[in-house]
Amino acid sequence: MADVNRGNRPLSPHLQIYRPQITSVTSIFTRITGNALIVTAVLIVWWLLAASTSEAYFNVANAVITSWFGKLVMVLSLWAVWYHFLAGLRHLYWDSGRGFDIPTATKLGWGVIIGSLVLTLLTFIVI
């Protein structure tokens, strides 16, 4: 039988009342960083191909990579690598069936965010 109250039910979760949790935010960032790393890989392959093609073409690619924008992209890519790595470790932990309670999931989410920032800073300092 048809549900007569179907039109009166609220949409769930509605954007005006929905508050993003740390797990949803980190999940979205994991997808974004994964796609951004693909773009970075294409940029690096372009740079390597330019190096094997000619000196003039390499100078163009190298100018892009070593510009302020290229350096910003590389630093953000470094953060994306660490973030994606730590998020992957979190998912491996979840695959074992642990860490699904809200306090643990929240700590793991903040651990991924803070850990990726700290590891990026340490890598940037060492390199």
What is this structure, in a nutshell?
This protein has helices spanning 22-53, 55-66, 68-95, 102-126. It is built from four helices and no strands.
What does the secondary structure layout of this molecule look like, with pairings?
Elements: H1 22-53, H2 55-66, H3 68-95, H4 102-126
Helix pairs in contact: 1-2, 1-3, 2-3, 3-4
How would you describe what is shown here?
The protein is mainly alpha-helical. It has one domain: Fumarate reductase/succinate dehydrogenase, transmembrane subunit (3 helical TM bundles of succinate and fumarate reductases, Up-down Bundle), CATH 1.20.1300. The chain contains four helices and no strands. It has helices at residues 22-53, 55-66, 68-95, 102-126. The longest helix is centred in the N-terminal third of the chain and has 32 residues, at 22-53. It is elongated, with a radius of gyration of 21 Å. The mean pLDDT is 90.
The shape, in one word, is elongated
What is the structural class? mainly alpha
CATH fold-level assignment: 3 helical TM bundles of succinate and fumarate reductases
Low-confidence stretches: none
- The CATH class designation is Mainly Alpha
